[in-house]
Amino acid sequence: MKVLKTYPEKCIACHSCESACSNLYFKEDNAAKSCILISEGTPPGMNVCNQCQTCVAACPTQALTVNSQGVVMLNKSLCIGCLMCVAVCPTDSMRTVQGMHSPFKCIACGVCTKNCPTDAIKIVTE
Amino acid sequence: MNRKLLAEFKYDLAPIVRGYNRRTLYLNLTDREIKSKPVSDMMIDKFVGGKGFDLYLMWHGVKDSTKWNSPENEICISFGPLCGNTSYPGSGKSIVTTISPLTGIPVDCNVGGHFGPYAKFAGWDAIELQGKSEEEVIIYIDGDTGLVQIFTAPDEEINSHILAEELVKEFADSPDKLQFVSVVSTGSAADHVNITCLNFSFWDKRRKVARLKQAGRGGTGTVFRDKRIKAMVVKYSGLKVDTNNPVDLPTLQKTGLKLHKEIEVGDATQCRMHEVGTAHLMEVMNDYDLLPIRNFKYGQMPEAIGLHSREFTALFTQGMADGCWYGCSLSCCKAVDNFKPRTGPYKGQPVCVDGPEYETAAGCGSNIGVFVPKDIVEINFYCDTYGVDTISFGTSTAFVMECYENGILDKTKTGGLELTWGNADAALELLHQMARGEGFGLIVGKGVRVMKDIFAKEYGADPAFLQDIGMEAKGLEYSQYMSKESLAQQGGYTLALKGPQHDEAWLIFMDMVNNHIPTFKDKAEALHYFPMFRTWFGLQGLCKLPWNDIEPANNAETDEPAKVPEHVANYIDIYKAITGKPMDKVEMIRQSERVYNFQKVFCMRMGKGRRIDDVPPYRAVGPVTEEEYLSRAERYDTQMRDKIGIDPTGKTTAEKMKITRDFREDQYQQLIDAVYFRKGWTPAGVPTVEHLQEIGMDLPEVLEVVKQYLD
Hints:
- By secondary structure, chain A is of the alpha+beta class.
- In chain A, 17% of the residues lie in helices and 17% in strands.
- Chain B folds into three domains: 231 residues, 4-Layer Sandwich (Aldehyde Ferredoxin Oxidoreductase,  A, domain 1), CATH 3.60.9.10; 211 residues, Orthogonal Bundle (Aldehyde Ferredoxin Oxidoreductase Protein, subunit A, domain 2); 137 residues, no CATH class.
- Helix content of chain B is 41%, strand content 13%.
- In chain B, a hairpin with a 6-residue loop joins strand 5 and strand 6.
- At the A-B interface, helix 3 of A face helix 6 of B.
């Protein structure tokens, strides 16, 4: 399974990962629209999908599926925006912005890892 | 399938505006007229939608003399402004009304499945079916292109579990789009008996079957088949989170997500809907002496352990997304997969069975003395596919079993069936007879009220005893709760406009267990508020369950926990978010009061709906037989001493039963006085002109009916 692994002890909460993520997916620098969320603290909090698949079973339209690399993918054309996946996510990593038609989540693309100055995030295969 | 097109109607597709299409679809099966009818501001202001639209359309479609099988009788199906949103749990309900073959007055059913939301998004706020076809037909609504068609129906199959699946596959654009089609159908029993239902399908993508939800009460399937409709099919492929075009999507999503999270956290320790659906109630009801056993004689028996919810959990496939509409995280519609019936035409064939829900498990289980869960699953399956209402089937079968055990019936009268308590084989054979249109099943399928008449006239049975044990009122069979020890619930059942169904008021715990409504005035207030509050779900296209089958963690600390104040606030929020109209908890009740009183007057117009019709069988009020009295003698003796003020010592059981009966029947009448007063009705049960004016339901046609009864 391919997953974005976090190392909070290395994180300096610079939020570069959030910028990279939201810029890639939503073309704007907005942490509210990032699949990874960094919160201040010692060490900082790092919240991102661990591909546990709990949401897949809850999705009524089967818009959420697992790809060949073990990554949970959202098919937006099937999504009816009910947000049941958001409620069942055990790590609060299925993300939503009110008014947006579909939730969003980390698909382990790795763009954030290239922007992290401290190697606090890494794509791994488990 | 080689179908002939009989009629066609094209219409323009247009987006919904704030929950409304502002038009309804009319089809006449006699002359095949199909047309669009506008929805006026008055309809929205006074009737809201859902059941309100149904009743308004029906009122103007039928005559005072209309019977269930008159050509002008209508089946109306409406959806409500909130119906079809995918954000808030329980938002996919259709409301079906018709003049019932069991009661002769309007019956209303609240049913899940995908038909309602898809028909609404196809462009219609309600569908009105009138007339009778000369040949078998299927009605098709294509919500993607704006087309309504009536086709011939040479289909051999009529039973729903097969027909629904065949039609989904026939009308879907491709095998990967089966989820965009939904079917309304009934079954072969609806050609022969009156205790029937309509099935509303939804395609279960995981199981790859058409699941079936029931518009269960009052014989809707019989009217459907009388019009020679085999099925209605709708296709709609464009569902999105904003298809209902809400004015405030963020608030709708926020409110829905809040409830999703509440369910995620609370369901496992509250009602366990995810695990076992409403069947979680089985042991709760048995523990409190409320589970109907042997035709509502008893509420508790040791044998009921066999129907513990864990037995149903073991039968239901776990971990599935079991909502009957998208976005329902309560996920209560459980199913038994790969069930192989041991009887009947589908013997040995693996089928998917929807349920059993509580009502079915109690009605087709404990109430007929069956304590084997798989027998209940089989009865459930055949009821659904044959189009039989499991509640009326359970209560009607319980009635004939008691008659059999009392010698009123015997094998010569039942065609050889031994209708002893717990004989599941005999119960199943009754069902198969209903489907085949033969044998004693035809008598049972007429319902309890007609059977009482037949057994008295033809078999010389004591009419008074039959009246006491025949669990029907207004012609409709009781649903499955014991009301003997809850005066408020006795009223809840008997005052329910369509007949004794618990969807108007379920007050047993509040009344009997928690003693929160001790006075007549308290009970009357509850019998005003809760029926009005619950009526609101039917106006909007909502399900009742997410209101109080999940509660916020701090609900018990609120001022009125029985009302679940936070959830009431949710409903106000989502109503405003969708319609953009003002709403508060006072206006909610007022919206319902208008439609409720309209329905009440509609019943009066059709010849029922007054005090003389709000009469319970004594079995719903107290112990009919010595056996019942003696089984709870300590309770009844104590009540005699404490509540009635009579010392039972030295009295015979017959004397004590008479004292108990006189007291309980008098209590019931006092309750009715208090409730009618609270509802704004005369002691005869007639809404006053002043009350109708006050609530804004003083339409001329309504006043004209009422005045006939006030003079």
